[in-house]
């Protein structure tokens, strides 16, 4: 019974460590981008709003190409 407890505990700790690592990477990648940074286009609304209005989203790449 102690062996099963060790396997479950070890598996849980590995899963927790993996999830912590992935969440840290996601946090590190997405912090500071597109919020108060002029190099990124502004983001407003949720992903669901962007999916609902996908055909009417404004393409800002044309504006940036013309301003260079």
Structure notes:
With 68 residues, this protein is an all-alpha fold. Helix content is 62%, strand content 0%. It has helices at residues 2-30, 47-52, 61-67. The longest helix has 29 residues, at 2-30. The termini are far apart.
Task: Give a quick rundown of the structure.
62% of the residues lie in helices and 0% in strands. By secondary structure, the protein is mostly helical.
Using only CA atoms, what is the Rg? Answer: 21 Å
Q: What low-confidence regions span 5 or more consecutive residues with pLDDT below 50?
A: none
Return the string of H and E elements.
HHH
Broad structural category: mainly alpha
Helical content class: 55-70%
Rounded to the nearest angstrom, the distance between the terminal CA atoms is: 69 Å
* Major sheet summary line: none
How many beta-strand elements?
A: 0
Strand residues, percent:
under 5%
Number of helical elements: 3
Descriptive labels:
mainly alpha; 68 residues; single chain; 62% helix
């Amino acid at each position: 019974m102690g062996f099963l407890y060790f396997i479950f505990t070890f598996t849980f700790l590995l899963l927790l460590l993996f999830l912590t690592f992935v969440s840290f990477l996601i946090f590190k990648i997405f912090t500071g981008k597109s919020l108060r940074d002029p190099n990124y286009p502004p983001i407003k609304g949720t992903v669901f709003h962007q999916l609902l209005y996908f055909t009417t989203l404004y393409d800002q790449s044309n504006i940036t190409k013309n301003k260079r």
